[in-house]
Amino acid sequence: MKTNKIKFGISYVNTGSALHTLNGITKFILFMSWVTMVLITFDLRVICAMILVGLALLKISKVPFSVYKPLLIGTSVVLLMNALFMFLIAPLQGVEYMGSETVLLTLFGDYKITVETLFYLLTVTLKYFSMFPIALVFVFSTHPTEFSASLNKLGIPYKIAYAVSLTLRYLPEVMKDFMNIMHAQQARGVDISNNVPVMKRIKNVAKILGPLIFSSLDRADVISNAMTLRGFGRNKRRSWYSLKPMTKNDYLTLLVIAIVLTLGFIKRYQSEQLFWYPF
Protein backbone atom coordinates (compact mmCIF):
# COMPACT_ATOMS: atom_id res chain seq x y z
CA MET A 1 0.00 0.00 0.00
CA LYS A 2 1.28 3.44 -0.89
CA THR A 3 1.83 5.66 2.13
CA ASN A 4 1.35 9.39 2.33
CA LYS A 5 4.42 11.51 2.97
CA ILE A 6 3.83 14.49 5.20
CA LYS A 7 6.53 16.98 6.05
CA PHE A 8 6.37 19.51 8.83
CA GLY A 9 8.24 22.54 7.53
CA ILE A 10 7.59 25.07 10.31
CA SER A 11 10.44 24.74 12.77
CA TYR A 12 13.74 26.33 13.70
CA VAL A 13 16.45 25.87 11.05
CA ASN A 14 19.95 26.89 12.09
CA THR A 15 21.70 28.19 8.97
CA GLY A 16 23.98 30.67 10.75
CA SER A 17 22.61 33.64 8.81
CA ALA A 18 22.69 37.25 9.91
CA LEU A 19 19.07 36.98 11.03
CA HIS A 20 19.94 34.10 13.33
CA THR A 21 22.44 36.29 15.18
CA LEU A 22 19.82 38.89 16.10
CA ASN A 23 18.32 38.87 19.56
CA GLY A 24 14.99 37.12 19.96
CA ILE A 25 13.47 40.36 21.29
CA THR A 26 14.48 42.15 18.08
CA LYS A 27 12.93 39.49 15.87
CA PHE A 28 9.74 39.39 17.94
CA ILE A 29 9.37 43.18 17.76
CA LEU A 30 10.07 42.99 14.00
CA PHE A 31 7.33 40.41 13.57
CA MET A 32 4.75 42.32 15.63
CA SER A 33 5.61 45.62 13.94
CA TRP A 34 5.29 43.94 10.54
CA VAL A 35 1.83 42.62 11.43
CA THR A 36 0.83 46.08 12.70
CA MET A 37 2.02 47.65 9.45
CA VAL A 38 0.00 45.14 7.43
CA LEU A 39 -3.12 45.85 9.47
CA ILE A 40 -2.99 49.65 9.09
CA THR A 41 -2.18 49.88 5.37
CA PHE A 42 -4.36 49.28 2.33
CA ASP A 43 -1.90 50.79 -0.12
CA LEU A 44 -0.95 48.23 -2.75
CA ARG A 45 2.41 49.93 -3.29
CA VAL A 46 3.35 49.54 0.37
CA ILE A 47 2.06 45.97 0.43
CA CYS A 48 4.11 44.98 -2.62
CA ALA A 49 7.19 46.62 -1.07
CA MET A 50 6.65 44.62 2.13
CA ILE A 51 6.35 41.39 0.15
CA LEU A 52 9.63 42.09 -1.64
CA VAL A 53 11.39 42.93 1.64
CA GLY A 54 9.93 39.83 3.28
CA LEU A 55 11.11 37.58 0.46
CA ALA A 56 14.54 39.24 0.63
CA LEU A 57 14.72 38.51 4.38
CA LEU A 58 13.65 34.93 3.68
CA LYS A 59 16.51 34.70 1.20
CA ILE A 60 18.95 36.14 3.76
CA SER A 61 17.87 33.46 6.24
CA LYS A 62 19.47 30.89 3.88
CA VAL A 63 16.66 28.40 4.46
CA PRO A 64 16.35 26.16 1.37
CA PHE A 65 13.32 26.84 -0.80
CA SER A 66 12.36 23.16 -0.65
CA VAL A 67 11.70 23.52 3.10
CA TYR A 68 8.89 26.08 2.73
CA LYS A 69 7.73 25.33 -0.82
CA PRO A 70 4.73 23.23 0.37
CA LEU A 71 3.77 26.03 2.75
CA LEU A 72 3.99 28.57 -0.07
CA ILE A 73 1.77 26.49 -2.33
CA GLY A 74 -0.73 25.78 0.44
CA THR A 75 -0.93 29.43 1.49
CA SER A 76 -1.41 30.57 -2.11
CA VAL A 77 -4.24 28.10 -2.65
CA VAL A 78 -5.99 29.16 0.57
CA LEU A 79 -5.70 32.86 -0.31
CA LEU A 80 -7.08 32.29 -3.81
CA MET A 81 -10.03 30.37 -2.37
CA ASN A 82 -10.55 33.18 0.14
CA ALA A 83 -10.63 35.73 -2.69
CA LEU A 84 -13.21 33.61 -4.52
CA PHE A 85 -15.45 33.38 -1.45
CA MET A 86 -15.11 37.11 -0.85
CA PHE A 87 -16.35 37.74 -4.39
CA LEU A 88 -19.26 35.31 -3.96
CA ILE A 89 -20.33 36.89 -0.67
CA ALA A 90 -19.86 40.55 -1.67
CA PRO A 91 -19.41 40.93 -5.46
CA LEU A 92 -19.66 44.74 -5.32
CA GLN A 93 -17.45 45.35 -2.29
CA GLY A 94 -14.69 46.84 -4.41
CA VAL A 95 -17.13 49.23 -6.08
CA GLU A 96 -18.22 50.53 -2.68
CA TYR A 97 -14.66 51.16 -1.53
CA MET A 98 -13.36 52.71 -4.76
CA GLY A 99 -16.42 54.87 -5.43
CA SER A 100 -16.67 53.97 -9.12
CA GLU A 101 -17.80 51.06 -11.30
CA THR A 102 -16.07 49.81 -14.44
CA VAL A 103 -17.84 46.63 -15.55
CA LEU A 104 -15.74 44.09 -17.42
CA LEU A 105 -18.22 41.22 -17.49
CA THR A 106 -21.82 40.83 -16.32
CA LEU A 107 -22.58 37.38 -14.96
CA PHE A 108 -26.03 37.13 -13.35
CA GLY A 109 -27.97 39.19 -10.82
CA ASP A 110 -25.63 41.44 -8.86
CA TYR A 111 -22.60 39.41 -9.86
CA LYS A 112 -20.41 41.57 -12.05
CA ILE A 113 -16.69 41.43 -12.62
CA THR A 114 -15.45 44.99 -12.30
CA VAL A 115 -12.02 46.58 -12.32
CA GLU A 116 -12.66 47.91 -8.83
CA THR A 117 -13.55 44.48 -7.43
CA LEU A 118 -10.51 42.84 -9.03
CA PHE A 119 -8.27 45.57 -7.62
CA TYR A 120 -9.87 45.19 -4.19
CA LEU A 121 -9.42 41.39 -4.19
CA LEU A 122 -5.81 41.76 -5.38
CA THR A 123 -5.03 44.24 -2.61
CA VAL A 124 -6.60 42.16 0.15
CA THR A 125 -5.02 38.91 -1.06
CA LEU A 126 -1.54 40.40 -1.26
CA LYS A 127 -2.16 42.10 2.09
CA TYR A 128 -2.68 38.70 3.71
CA PHE A 129 0.21 37.14 1.78
CA SER A 130 2.63 39.85 2.92
CA MET A 131 2.62 38.30 6.43
CA PHE A 132 3.72 34.91 5.09
CA PRO A 133 7.44 35.61 4.47
CA ILE A 134 8.06 37.40 7.77
CA ALA A 135 6.28 34.64 9.70
CA LEU A 136 8.59 32.07 8.14
CA VAL A 137 11.63 34.26 8.82
CA PHE A 138 10.67 34.55 12.47
CA VAL A 139 10.03 30.81 12.94
CA PHE A 140 13.05 29.64 10.95
CA SER A 141 15.53 32.00 12.61
CA THR A 142 14.30 31.97 16.22
CA HIS A 143 14.95 29.04 18.53
CA PRO A 144 11.92 28.25 20.74
CA THR A 145 13.92 28.62 23.96
CA GLU A 146 15.44 31.88 22.76
CA PHE A 147 11.96 33.15 21.88
CA SER A 148 10.67 32.24 25.34
CA ALA A 149 13.59 34.00 26.97
CA SER A 150 12.77 37.07 24.91
CA LEU A 151 9.13 36.98 25.99
CA ASN A 152 10.20 36.75 29.61
CA LYS A 153 12.61 39.65 29.09
CA LEU A 154 9.68 41.73 27.81
CA GLY A 155 7.80 41.17 31.08
CA ILE A 156 5.73 38.06 30.31
CA PRO A 157 5.74 35.57 33.23
CA TYR A 158 8.29 32.85 32.65
CA LYS A 159 5.70 30.09 33.14
CA ILE A 160 3.76 31.35 30.12
CA ALA A 161 6.97 31.88 28.17
CA TYR A 162 8.11 28.34 28.93
CA ALA A 163 4.72 26.96 27.85
CA VAL A 164 5.19 28.71 24.50
CA SER A 165 8.66 27.18 24.23
CA LEU A 166 7.35 23.67 24.88
CA THR A 167 4.57 24.13 22.34
CA LEU A 168 6.93 25.23 19.59
CA ARG A 169 9.51 22.60 20.48
CA TYR A 170 7.16 19.63 20.47
CA LEU A 171 5.02 20.44 17.44
CA PRO A 172 7.51 18.65 15.13
CA GLU A 173 7.59 15.72 17.58
CA VAL A 174 3.80 15.46 17.48
CA MET A 175 3.95 15.47 13.70
CA LYS A 176 6.50 12.66 13.75
CA ASP A 177 4.22 10.65 16.04
CA PHE A 178 1.35 11.28 13.65
CA MET A 179 3.35 9.91 10.72
CA ASN A 180 4.53 6.88 12.68
CA ILE A 181 1.00 6.06 13.83
CA MET A 182 -0.36 6.63 10.33
CA HIS A 183 2.19 4.27 8.79
CA ALA A 184 1.51 1.65 11.47
CA GLN A 185 -2.24 1.84 10.86
CA GLN A 186 -1.75 1.68 7.10
CA ALA A 187 0.33 -1.46 7.59
CA ARG A 188 -2.69 -2.91 9.38
CA GLY A 189 -4.94 -2.11 6.41
CA VAL A 190 -6.34 1.28 7.47
CA ASP A 191 -6.81 3.29 4.26
CA ILE A 192 -7.10 7.10 4.35
CA SER A 193 -6.55 7.68 0.64
CA ASN A 194 -9.10 8.85 -1.92
CA ASN A 195 -9.86 5.22 -2.77
CA VAL A 196 -12.33 4.91 0.13
CA PRO A 197 -15.60 6.81 0.78
CA VAL A 198 -15.46 10.04 2.76
CA MET A 199 -17.22 8.71 5.86
CA LYS A 200 -14.96 5.66 6.05
CA ARG A 201 -11.94 7.88 5.57
CA ILE A 202 -13.07 10.03 8.52
CA LYS A 203 -13.43 6.91 10.69
CA ASN A 204 -9.97 5.73 9.65
CA VAL A 205 -8.46 9.14 10.48
CA ALA A 206 -10.05 8.84 13.94
CA LYS A 207 -8.09 5.61 14.40
CA ILE A 208 -4.93 7.68 13.94
CA LEU A 209 -5.94 10.69 16.02
CA GLY A 210 -6.93 8.56 19.02
CA PRO A 211 -3.47 7.08 19.63
CA LEU A 212 -1.90 10.43 18.78
CA ILE A 213 -3.91 12.22 21.48
CA PHE A 214 -3.07 9.60 24.10
CA SER A 215 0.64 9.64 23.21
CA SER A 216 0.66 13.45 23.40
CA LEU A 217 -1.05 13.37 26.80
CA ASP A 218 1.48 10.79 27.99
CA ARG A 219 4.37 13.01 26.83
CA ALA A 220 2.79 16.01 28.55
CA ASP A 221 2.49 14.02 31.78
CA VAL A 222 6.16 12.96 31.62
CA ILE A 223 7.27 16.55 31.03
CA SER A 224 5.04 17.85 33.83
CA ASN A 225 6.44 15.32 36.31
CA ALA A 226 10.02 16.10 35.27
CA MET A 227 9.44 19.84 35.73
CA THR A 228 7.80 19.28 39.12
CA LEU A 229 10.73 17.14 40.33
CA ARG A 230 13.13 19.92 39.32
CA GLY A 231 11.16 22.53 41.25
CA PHE A 232 9.86 24.45 38.25
CA GLY A 233 7.70 27.41 39.30
CA ARG A 234 9.04 27.57 42.83
CA ASN A 235 10.90 30.84 42.31
CA LYS A 236 9.40 34.08 41.06
CA ARG A 237 12.22 34.64 38.59
CA ARG A 238 14.49 32.39 36.57
CA SER A 239 17.50 32.71 34.27
CA TRP A 240 17.70 31.56 30.66
CA TYR A 241 20.64 29.70 29.20
CA SER A 242 19.93 30.80 25.60
CA LEU A 243 19.23 34.48 26.21
CA LYS A 244 21.39 36.56 23.86
CA PRO A 245 22.61 40.04 24.77
CA MET A 246 21.50 42.97 22.66
CA THR A 247 24.12 44.05 20.13
CA LYS A 248 24.67 47.09 17.95
CA ASN A 249 22.88 45.37 15.05
CA ASP A 250 19.85 44.81 17.26
CA TYR A 251 19.59 48.46 18.24
CA LEU A 252 20.07 49.54 14.62
CA THR A 253 17.32 47.15 13.50
CA LEU A 254 14.97 48.45 16.19
CA LEU A 255 15.67 52.02 15.10
CA VAL A 256 14.77 51.20 11.48
CA ILE A 257 11.61 49.42 12.64
CA ALA A 258 10.55 52.43 14.72
CA ILE A 259 11.11 54.85 11.83
CA VAL A 260 9.23 52.72 9.28
CA LEU A 261 6.33 52.07 11.66
CA THR A 262 6.05 55.77 12.49
CA LEU A 263 5.97 56.67 8.79
CA GLY A 264 3.30 54.04 8.29
CA PHE A 265 1.05 55.55 10.97
CA ILE A 266 1.61 59.04 9.57
CA LYS A 267 0.70 57.91 6.05
CA ARG A 268 -2.40 56.10 7.30
CA TYR A 269 -3.50 59.17 9.25
CA GLN A 270 -3.02 61.50 6.28
CA SER A 271 -4.69 59.23 3.71
CA GLU A 272 -8.05 60.51 2.54
CA GLN A 273 -9.16 57.13 1.19
CA LEU A 274 -8.83 53.69 2.77
CA PHE A 275 -7.63 52.01 -0.44
CA TRP A 276 -5.08 53.42 -2.86
CA TYR A 277 -6.76 53.28 -6.29
CA PRO A 278 -4.85 54.76 -9.26
CA PHE A 279 -7.59 54.42 -11.89
Offer a quick outline of the entry.
It is found in: Membrane. The chain is mainly α and 279 residues long.
Provide the descriptors you would attach to this structure in a database record.
single chain; about 280 residues; mainly alpha; 2 domains; two-stranded antiparallel sheet; 10 helices; about 65% helix; flat; disordered N terminus
What would your notes on this structure say?
With 279 residues, this protein is mainly alpha-helical. The protein has two domains: 18-143 and 244-270, no CATH class; 148-230, no CATH class. The protein is 67% helix and 4% strand. The chain has ten helices and two strands; from the N terminus they run H-H-H-H-E-E-H-H-H-H-H-H. It has a two-stranded antiparallel ribbon with strand order 1-2. Strand 1 (103-108) and strand 2 form a beta hairpin. Helix 1 (24-40) runs antiparallel to helix 6 (131-141), helix 2 (44-60) runs parallel beside helix 6 and helix 3 (65-89) packs antiparallel against helix 5 (115-129). It starts with 23 loop residues before the first helix and ends in a 9-residue tail after the last helix.
